[in-house]
Amino acid sequence: MAAKRVYQVWKGSNKFILGGRLVFGPDARSLLITLSLIIVPVIIFCVFVARHLRHAFSSYYSGYAILVVAILFTIHVLVLLCFTSARDPGIIPRNSHPPEEEFRYESSTVAGQQTPSLQFPRTKEVMVNGLPVKVKYCETCMLYRPPRCSHCSICNNCVERFDHHCPWVGQCIGLRNYRYFFMFVSSATILCIYVFSFSAFYIKVLMDNNDIGTVWKAIKESPASVILMAYCFISLWFVGGLTGFHLYLIGTNQTTYENFRYRADGRINVFNRGCLNNFLEVFCTEIKPSRNNFRAFVQEEVQRPLTTVISRGREPDDLGGDRRPKVEDDLDIGEDLLKISQRRNIEQLDEDIQNRGSNGAPHNTAEPDSILSSDHRATTIRSDARHSSWERSGNWEIAQDVFANSNVTESRNYVSSKETRQ
């Protein structure tokens, strides 16, 4: 069976084309609407307006520049749209298991006995520009999100410097494509102003014509110019307002997500480094390479070394020793299982000793210790026999086959010890 590539087994909601070279959001079809809203008006402008302005200037060929600039600038806008929607916005790869180094081993006294327990913090603090910032644990991606990272519910990914999910481009806007998104929106604004201006200029040219004279006759002569002016005016409220809003966000070093969520909190923006430095951070810093190689072949995860969970006695060395907070070694139910199994085997041993004493058969007093020690070694639960799942509540569930495996191991060991004595 041929090995699969990363994009073929990707757990997010992204869509890939060209063998994983281009990555889109799940709503990538909305790009067709955006493309039509850009291309169709430009085609109408070139055919019904710019074509008639080729000879409207004293220099015979200068009018061609209006047509050429419109086409080239439209291509520029489409390229920026492609860079925004068809690249990794800053997706953080998922972990296959929770970070074990974050587990905390704590013990509590219950009925006079020390009961071990695992604690897993859902938030932790990191330092940003000398100030503490809380980061949250993502249960879907099983990682602590870096500062300014958030999980997009539409793409089902954690995205660095998450700004928002834009349905018009069909992609999340994050660390790696925010610059292109702003340039796309601002360029679309300039294109609207360009088309609006020359459409109005064409109406003026028609009015100056001796055969038409009035504005109403000019509108009847070129209704496409009026339609383009109305369309560009409406579009300017959208893309123009969006450009102004993101200029404010860049100047204050905020994201759309932070501005809408923390606007009323009055918290200090630890990322603000001054207006000039904020603009330099967005436009003059090197874009980080993607953390994901979607075309790479999926590699099998290396199995962890098998570890055992052993019930520890009340030995002085254990009380003062260093206990390492391992996930496999600190399961409460595993320790309880071993204690129950030990107690059952001791009771069976007492009955066997009593039966031998009543029959008058000699027995060696050292045998119970050897049986206990061998039983202590046998009552281990290997990690490969445990099927556990980390639920959102933070509990470990142990399957029933663990109970069966532990019982089988203990009974076989007891029979073998008994046969050795006989």
From TrEMBL:
All copies of domain Palmitoyltransferase DHHC, residue ranges: 136-261
Originating species: Medicago truncatula (Barrel medic)
Name by which UniProt lists this protein: S-acyltransferase
Region (Disordered): 354-390
Domain free text: The DHHC domain is required for palmitoyltransferase activity.
Membrane topology per record: Multi-pass membrane protein
Biological classification of the source: Eukaryota, Viridiplantae, Streptophyta, Embryophyta, Tracheophyta
Family membership: Belongs to the DHHC palmitoyltransferase family.
Transmembrane segments: 31-50, 62-84, 180-203, 223-251
Record-listed E.C. numbers: 2.3.1.225
Catalytic class of the enzyme: transferase
GO process annotations (BP): protein targeting to membrane
